[in-house]
């Protein structure tokens, strides 16, 4: 870990640069402050290579977007633009509420996972914000971004671990002269989702041009939107855990069917194992069919109670749709030529932001001896109707299970506050021989996060109230009546409510040295090489509130294999937000690398030049030992304007701190619903649910037998209903993990026609094929995939419907209710993940007069399209590959459109400009169903006006047609995927950029 003194030196040396920027500004003549510092284009370095060379072209598939593309989104953060790009699948974004990530925004290149997407800033790593090594792009100051370069395929030979899917390199303007003010305001058509940003940047040259310093400070905000503010999400988050209270009687002690038929006045209208809720008058109703339901009134209660359809509570009426954000950014950079061959440089990035998330009030699931409550039959609040149910059981004195959602306490609120700083300092320059140059640098980054949670509930406190002979009146004023709409006194709220505070600290230190230059001449040109060494250390510490890791003595013990062994250990004391355990860990690596650019042929027929780019990196990790990465790429200039590029790369990713050292935490994984919104049976939810496709398909009898073999009683199996979309599970790390290995193949061409006709002088086209295959994939088999694998959803994972099948051993059923519990999500080296496809980018600009029209201005067109040929995952060696290309399912972030477009047409005439942007997400199959989602199109309009040489105004409308998102499943957040589809609707923004 970097010492405090070292950190202080790094910070001090670079903050001086910010002060120097102000000094330089004060000393500059006014005329010199209008334009940015000109950037030399004689020698450049492109993302994906360490070698600087004149007129260098990327040998990897690369897509570049600029500041104007970011401004066209109207967003104050960058994830909106990145998720619009065809190369990216949805990651965490402003709409990722549940599951969420504390307001962070993560990038997911090629859908291979944000932990396999390396995010760089000016070619250097950014300190991770999570235990899995992912970077929160919210910390990047949007106003300073010059462009973003995205390359696909492994880049481990160049940058090290994490770059299996590729690299997103955010290039900031760190060489600026003058003063620039940028301001923007936006709001949705419905008057919510307000965004504001304001940034001031000052910079100037030092000591007659021997250096430059820049300082930028900005603030941006985004207001929250609640789910009930949009029609598509107002009814969402279907859940069986109700504020009315829910009882599911033990399968071994059921009320008689005759009694239930008589009470509900129907013949076999509901089964004994169905869930029963409590009306406000003390009577009971059945969740299955909603028989005898008496609504208290309101969207929460009336959304899901049509006769014949299972009643459920509507959590969408109380949850959040879009997460708010308040962010301060500061960036300072300085460079100074100490001598003609030595330049000192440094920069500081500082970000502080806060974000809040509101979820529906705490549900306490059950009933089971592991997770739910047990109510004694002596409880004084038991109504006459409930007493009749209890007396209709074989053992009328036995306790019974209870679920409860605690609306009386209010929603679950998580307030995140995050502070990030990263300091880089170094020296670079020319060596006294040839054109060799050196660069020695050190950087330190730190992320501090504090999360305050309210709305949690103490399990033991609630159980004490239920067990108390007075119904809890001896413990708090009025006691606790769990049956029906509960009104709690403030003293009872204080008795069961638990607030918590969690802290996270992430640190990264990197020391690196590189040399590069010309080695010797070949007939086709000069061989150039880059060599270097790097030391990197990552540490992570998560310290949860004591209450979130505190245990009580009712959870089944898990053996060495991660499965219940029959014993008991403490369970989590607090419910609400997922309980978590402390996590600490560190990793480090020592790495050496070499890259060579070898001219093979030149000036031959159909070979203007043929260059070979070779790279190799050896890394010694403290966790997995030595690993190697390499690349071999070609750059072939065929004729004027036509280049062919491609190659092969071997990339590696060492397991992250969270994957290695994560403690076993309770989770609430999504499994979807057995029926869709139209009530049709689908392959989702619990396969034993009598409403789903498993129990109504060709193998229904085998499914039934497997349900019984897992512990669902024969008396309950033909009436079993599981009316929630989530189950209880465990997640955790594994210190025995080994590295992932990826092989990438790419082949493409770039065409820039060298024609005298000015109509085509600014035309550029690239077409690239990619194929990425990752083996020993680190991950977990999701709860949904566990159930699908066990119950043979694909027809190949468990053809004998054997209870001892590997998928079936990853979860168990509660002995009393038969509900799925303890889904095991430990990190493992699974089998293979692979994807392939094609990217096309076309850029074309021309003056209208060159097209034979009057001189009315100029047009610029940009067209980026991604075609996903395949996206396949194999969970076990020799097992089947699940094809996901062109599909979407009920888990946020598992969206794989086969086609995705991002197109813009911009017209300019003098100081005026107008642009139309077209975003298209292609048609997708809803995974494991016969249903489809149609393609969806979004249009954005942007106008600009250069008032004078100093001031530019802009205004825009996003989602011009007010297109609602595609909705398809009651089992996911807001009935849609909020990162793939636009959840805000039509919105407007205005902005200003002024330079002085």
In short:
The chain has 996 residues and is mostly beta strands.
Topology, pairings included?
Elements: H1 4-27, E1 62-66, H2 67-72, H3 79-84, E2 88-89, E3 108-109, E4 117-121, E5 124-125, E6 145-152, H4 156-159, E7 166-172, E8 178-188, E9 195-206, E10 211-222, E11 225-226, H5 231-234, E12 238-239, E13 246-247, H6 257-264, E14 276-278, E15 284-286, H7 299-302, E16 313-314, E17 320-322, E18 325-339, E19 342-359, E20 363-364, E21 373-375, H8 384-391, E22 400-402, E23 404-405, E24 412-430, E25 437-458, H9 459-467, H10 490-496, E26 497-522, E27 525-543, H11 546-549, E28 551-558, E29 564-572, E30 574-575, E31 583-604, E32 607-621, E33 625-639, E34 642-653, H12 657-661, E35 665-667, H13 700-709, E36 729-732, E37 740-751, E38 762-775, E39 778-779, H14 783-790, E40 812-813, E41 820-821, E42 823-826, E43 828-829, E44 832-847, E45 858-874, E46 881-883, E47 887-888, E48 895-896, E49 899-909, E50 912-921, E51 924-926, E52 932-933, E53 936-946, E54 951-958, E55 987-995
Parallel strand pairs: 4-7, 36-42, 47-51
Antiparallel strand pairs: 1-6, 2-3, 4-5, 6-7, 8-9, 8-55, 9-10, 10-18, 11-17, 12-16, 13-14, 14-15, 18-19, 19-24, 20-23, 21-22, 24-25, 25-26, 25-30, 26-27, 27-31, 28-29, 31-32, 32-33, 33-34, 34-37, 35-36, 37-38, 38-44, 39-43, 40-41, 44-45, 45-46, 45-49, 47-48, 49-50, 50-53, 51-52, 53-54, 54-55
Descriptive report:
This protein is elongated. The chain is built from 14 helices and 55 strands. The relative contact order is 0.12. The chain has a 22-stranded antiparallel β-barrel. With about 1000 residues, the chain is mostly beta strands. It is found in: Cell outer membrane. Belongs to the TonB-dependent receptor family. It comes from Brevundimonas olei. InterPro entries: Beta-barrel_TonB (IPR000531), Beta-barrel_TonB_sf (IPR036942), Plug_dom (IPR012910), Plug_dom_sf (IPR037066), TAT_signal (IPR006311), TonB-dep_rcpt-like (IPR039426).
